Amino acid sequence: MAEDTIDLAPPDAPPDATGSLAGAKLVLVDGSGFIFRAYHALPPMTRADGTPVNAVFGFSNMLARLLRDHVGTHLAVIFDAGRSTFRNRMYTAYKAHRPEPPDDLIPQFALVREATAAFGVPAVELADWEADDLIASYAREIVARGGECTIISSDKDLMQLLGPGVEMLDPIKQKPIGAEEVLAKFGVPPDKVVEVQALMGDSVDNVPGVPGIGPKTAGQLVAEFGDVEAILAAAPAMKPSKRRDSLIEHAEAARISRRLVELDRNAPLPLPIEALGATTPDARRLGTWLDGMGFRSIAARLSLPGMVRGEVAAVASPDPHAPVADAAAEGTPSVAYGPYGLITDADALAALTDEITRAGVVAIAVQTDTTDARRSPIVGIAFATGAGRASYLPLRHEGDLEHPVGPQLDFGTVAEALRPLLADPSVLKLFHNAKFDTLALSAAGLPFPAPLDDTMLISYAQDAGAHGHALGELAARHLGHTPATFESVTGTGRARLAFSRIAPQAAGQFAAEAADATWRLWRALRPGLRAQRSLSVYELLERRLVPIIARMEQDGIAIDAAELARMSADFGARMAVMETEIHALAGRSFNLGSPKQLGEILFDEMGLPGGKRMKTGAWGTDSSVLQTLAEQGHVLPARILDWRQLAKLKSTYADSLVDDVDPRTRRVHTTFQMAATTTGRLSSNAPNLQNIPIRTEEGGRIRQAFIAAPGQVLVSADYSQIELRLLAHVADIPALRESFRNGEDIHARTASEVFGVPMAGMDSLTRRRAKAINFGIIYGISAFGLARQLGIEPGEAKLYIDQYFRRYPAIRDYMETTREFARTHGYVLTPFGRRCWIPGIAEKNPARRAYGERQAINAPLQGGAADIIKRAMVRLPDAIAASGLSGRMLLQVHDELLFESPQDEAAALADLARDVMQQAARLVVPLVVETGTGRHWGDAH
C-alpha cells in the first residue's frame, strides 16, 4: 500500500457484463440525518477562524467509524438538495412550519460536503427530490440487479423500504433495524408502514393524517382492513364513534397523507451505482483537510500522516455561556480526579480568581455543616475551572491539639475577593443544586452569583422521572465515576463528625472532587438540552426559579403556636374515637401503629385477598396495599387509612410545626425540592406543605395555623380547575371547552351530559358524583376507587365511568394515545414540551404497569399545570416590583401561590397576581385564578 493512503475500505466489486451486481453491497448514508444528529449531540465548537464546526466534527467522526466498520462494495452519502420538493406542489403545507436551520448550522452544510469529499465518498443529491426518495430508488435498483443494500439511518420514514435485500442500521446505537423492530414500532410489517403513517400523520413534517388516530389505532385498522383505501371504504359501516366520523370527514387528508409519506422508488439516479464503488481515501488529502479543520483526534484515530500543526483549532463558542468544546476534549473523562490543592493564603486566592476570570467558567461547591443553608455558616468553598483543575478554600475548619488545621484565610478577606467574581457577568458559575449554594452565599453576606448554570436542573429538565439527579448518581451515570460521599468523609452514626471538624486536606479532596464532577457534568449534560428539546424548560423556567425560590425559603411564614396546640388536642381525641371503631371492626384490640399486627388481622384472621409477605415474613400493609383493599370495598382498611392520615397530620403539622420555627426569624422556612417529582411540580420538606389535604376539614384547620406578620395579611391566588382545563385543551372536547369558555359550572355540566339531567336546579349529590368523576378521570381512577369516594357499589361506579366515556369519547382517545406514546417513547410531554419519563410503563408486573399507565395519563396534565404556575412565578417578582407594591411571594403549593402583603395593598396585589397568573399561558379555554385575603391561610384560601 502506498505511504500516503490508508486502507479503510474493501476494493470495488464491478458488475459483470450482463449488468448484474450479484454479491455487491451498497451502503447508503442518510446525510441529513447524520448532520442534525451531530449538531444536536455536540456542544458549540468553532474553527480557528471562528466558523462553527460541531456538526462537521460529529459528521466526520461518524463517517470515519462507518468506513472502518460498515463499508460494503459501494457507498454513498445522500443529501437533501433543498427544502422545496415535488411534495410541496402536491401539498403546500408540507413541512411548511419547520423552522429555519440554526444560524450556526447553516455554514456547516457546505463543510459537511467537503468532509464527504475528503473521505473519498460520493455525495449524491438532486433538486426537487428528497434524500429519502433517492435512497429508495438506489435500494430498489441494487436489489433488482442482484445486490444488497444497507441504509445507515434510524429515520422511521425509511422503514417502509425494508425487505429482502434491504436492511437498516441505527448509526448511534449500532443496531440493525429489521421487520421485527418495525412491527414493534408500528404494529405492522414494513410493507404496511406507509398505511399507518398516512392515518396517524406527522406533526414534524406537517402531514395531516386523520385527527384522533394514533399509532396503535392506525396499526389495528391496517391489520384489519389492509390499506388506507380499504379502511376509508369500510368507515361508513363502522360502529358509530368519533373515530368513524373522523375517517369519513378526513378521508381526502388520509389520501393526501398516503401520497406524501410514500417514497418514490423510481426517482432519477444522479450517479449510476457503478460510480459509487467504495475506494480507499487518499490519506494525505484527508489528513490535510482534518488538519485544516483542527480535527486532530480523528486523524490520530485513523493514524493519518501530515498533521503538521498538531493542535486543535477549535476555540470558545461565541455564546459565552455555552460549553467550550474542542475536538481534543474527548479525553476529558480520563483526566484524573485529584489530587487537588488548598487555597490558604492571599496570593493563592488572587491567582485563583485570576484563573477563574480568564476561564470564564467555574464550578463552585459550597460546604456547610448542615443541610440548612440559611443557618449553617460556610465551612469552605471548592472551585473547578476544568477537568481535574480544582482546589478548596477552607474557611471555618476547627482542629485540636492532635489535629491542627493549619492556616486559613479570614472570611472578610475571602468575601472581598469573591464579591466581584460572583457578580461578574462574564463569568458563568456552575453549581449542582444552585439553590442551596446561593442560599449559603447569601446568608454569608455575599452577592447572588450570576449568571449561573445548575447541573442538577439541567439533568432534571431532560430526564425527570427517569432517575435521580444527585451529583453522585449523575457522575456515575454520565462520567463513569463515583465521587466520595459525604458520609465517607464525616463518618456515620454516633461517630459522625461535623464537616468543620474534618481536616482541611481530607475535606478539600471531597469538596474539590464535587466541583470537578460538576464541571464535567456540565460539559456532558448541557448540550443535551438542545438535542432533547428541553432548553426552554431549563432556561425559561427551572434556572430562573433558583433565585425566586431561594428568596421564598429565606422569607418563610409565621405560624400560630396556640392554634397548633388546640389542633393537636382535637386530632388526638378524634383518633381515639376512630381507634375504638377500628377495634370493633377487627373484632379485637391491637396496636394500630404496628404493621405486623395489622397484617395478621387483615390476612390471617379476616382472610382478605391479595396479601403478600415481605422478606421478614410479615404481611405488607403499606398504603398501596390498604388502598387496593379499600377500593375493593373492605371497610377496615379504609378506616385504617383515615386514621393514618389523621395521625400523620397530627405528627407532621400539629405537633411538629413549632419545632420547625427558626428562633432568629420566628418563622417557618420550608425547603423546596426543585428536582424531585416526575411532572415538574415542586415538593417541600421541613415541613412538607404539599401533603396538606386540599379539600378536607383537616386541611383547612392546618392552614389556619399559618398566619401573616403583624400589620400584614396573606393573599392566596389559586388556579381554578387547571388540570380539567388542560384536559379540555389537549383532548379536544367541545362540550368541556364550551363550558369553560362560558364560565359554567363544569361539574354541573358534566352531570347534565353524563346523567341526562338539566343543569338548572341540579341536586348536590348528582353534582358531587360528576365532580368525583371529573377529577378521578385525570388520575385514572378505578370503579372501586370511585365507589369508595361516593359510597356506592363498584358496579354502579363502573356504569358512571362507562357513561362518561360514551359522552366524552375524546377523553378515552386522549388516554389511549397518551399511553401508546409512553409505551413507544418511555416518556410523555406536557403541552409546553417538558419530558416526564414513566419507567413503570414497561413493567412486566400488571399492577405496576397499570400504575405507570395512570402516571402517563396524568403527567401531561399535572406537569402542564406545574409549567404554568412556574411561568407565573418567574414573572411575578418583577411585576410586583414594577407596580410599586411591597408584597412578597412566600409559598407555592400545588396550583396555589401565597403572598404576604400590607393590608392596604392586598387588593392590588391580588389583582396583579390574578392578571399575571391568568396570562401565564394561552389555552383554548380561559385560565381562571381565584384570590382571597385573610389573617391566616385558611381565610385567604
How does this model look, in words?
It catalyses: DNA(n) + a 2'-deoxyribonucleoside 5'-triphosphate = DNA(n+1) + diphosphate. One of its GO terms (biological process) is DNA-templated DNA replication. This is DNA polymerase I. Belongs to the DNA polymerase type-A family. Residues 24-279 form the 5'-3' exonuclease domain. This protein is an alpha/beta fold and 941 residues long. The chain folds into five domains: 25-275, 3-Layer(aba) Sandwich (Rossmann fold); 335-555, Ribonuclease H-like superfamily/Ribonuclease H (Nucleotidyltransferase, domain 5, 2-Layer Sandwich), CATH 3.30.420.10; 558-667, Up-down Bundle (Taq DNA Polymerase, Chain T, domain 4), CATH 1.20.1060.10; 676-724 and 846-941, Alpha-Beta Plaits (2-Layer Sandwich), CATH 3.30.70.370; 725-845, 5' to 3' exonuclease, C-terminal subdomain (DNA polymerase, domain 1). Helices cover 48% and strands 11% of the residues. The protein contains 36 helices and 24 strands. The protein has a six-stranded mixed β-sheet. A six-stranded mixed β-sheet has the order 7-10-9-8-11-12. Strand 22 (888-893) and strand 23 (896-902) form a beta hairpin. Helix 29 (746-755) crosses helix 32. The longest helix is centred in the C-terminal third of the chain and has 38 residues, at 846-883. The chain is globular and about 95 Å long. The N and C termini lie far apart (83 Å). Mean pLDDT is 87; it is low at 1-18 and 305-333.
